[in-house]
Specification:
195 residues; mainly beta; hypothetical protein yedk fold; 5-stranded antiparallel β-sheet; 14 strands; 11% helix; 39% strand
């Protein structure tokens, strides 16, 4: 699963102009490298206007600990099971939809320790994952959908890849169209492995 992506500050004028975000924060308020528990930028609709916002990546899920009477909190960063009750409240409400801008994302290289392979969308300085968000005890948090990998990603990560939206689908996603309609691999011919 994708647990590392980047967003470069020099892309924000293109993104703000491209997505039509009326207000919000510049990309420079977050790190270039985004990992689980880090603050990442998202675009959401607030009172009918698109805006940029920062939120923590990873929706907290409290689980039973190994010792009786204890709990542990796990951060869920990727949404795979769209029928899970855990995600349904966010997936079915348009107000909990968001776009997660990125310039490239990483998947771990098989049997190579911490080495990663990077993927980008050709001819797009910034693209977007299909995201969802909600308030939590620790502030607002987000995650994004994953799906079957395309032929470019599959040799590196055969389980899944992030759901990358086509620009024509941004507004449909934010409006709350059924999540299943978007949960498909982005065409590999429109992507490449970043150097």
């Amino acid at each position: 699963m994708c647990n590392h992506y980047q967003i470069h500050p020099d892309a924000i004028p293109t993104w703000r102009e491209y997505i039509g975000a009326a207000d919000g924060l510049p990309f420079s308020v977050t790190n270039i490298d985004i990992w689980p528990k880090y603050q990442g930028l998202i675009t959401r609709v607030d009172e009918g206007r698109k805006m940029l916002d920062t939120m923590q990546w990873g929706v907290p899920l409290k689980m039973k600990g190994k010792r009786p009477g204890t709990t542990v909190t796990k951060r869920i960063t990727n949404v795979r099971n769209l029928s899970s009750p855990f995600w349904q409240s966010m997936l079915t409400k348009p107000e909990n939809r968001c776009l997660v801008p990125f310039t490239q994302f990483a998947e771990p290289k098989p049997k190579a320790g911490r080495e990663e392979c990077w993927f980008k969308i050709n001819e797009a300085p910034v693209s977007a994952f299909a995201g969802i968000w909600r308030p939590s005890d620790e502030g607002n948090v987000f995650a994004f959908l994953t799906c079957e990998p395309n032929p470019l990603v599959k040799p590196i990560h055969p389980k899944a890849m992030p759901v990358i939206l086509h620009p024509k689908d941004y507004d449909k996603w934010l409006a709350g169209e059924a999540a299943e309609n978007f949960a498909e691999p982005f065409p590999s011919q429109l992507m490449s492995m970043a150097a």
